[in-house]
Predict the structure.
Amino acid sequence: MNEAVEDPAAVSPGRRRRTVRYGLAVAAIIIQLLLVSTYYFPMGLGWGGFGYLANMAQGVIILVVAVLLTPKRPLLVLPLPVLSLLLMLALQALTLRVTECSQEELSAVAELAPPPGSPPLSFQSYPHSGCVTEFYISLSGKRVLDHYRRAATNAGWQVEPGDVSVEPGQGSFDAGNLYLHNATMTVEVRYESGGEEGPLRDQTAVVVSVYERDR
């Protein structure tokens, strides 16, 4: 007895359309999975807080919804990665917006003049980071911290030692920080210097962050 062999050309148009729809839905699920695992999650390393948690939640929820919709409504899955990306951008705009520093923050940091040779400083306020400025200077990191330590002592601030890490050898790299407190504000001074190439090879990068003490 000869077995009937299905002719690929005889496959119904409806079946082909269903196959295409399911294939597109699976592709959308893969895109959403990549967004969550390779974009949303690593982005939180520099984001943090409620915004990051909300973003991860929407990404995972939309991924689950996409999987549940695929068997019955595969075409509804297609716009979900785009919706998820738009929600991420909206959350990012709300939680990572740059604003002006408060007068209290600027007044506090004005008591701690930067080291001689520093460029004009421009402070901006970032969520979860406080009022922040960053600049490069030719002084060593140790001399930068020594300067801010003396300035804080002269202004009557408390000085809290931070951490200093050094990687010796070729392309040596070091970094450190210092915390300074007055009655209402904390100033953190961080520096990085060294490396085989780039601006840190010849200069020290300094970040000064100002925020309220109850943060």
In short: The chain has a mean pLDDT of 82. The longest helix spans residues 13-43. Residues 47 and 96 are 8 Å apart (CA to CA). The chain has two domains: 8-95, 103-212.
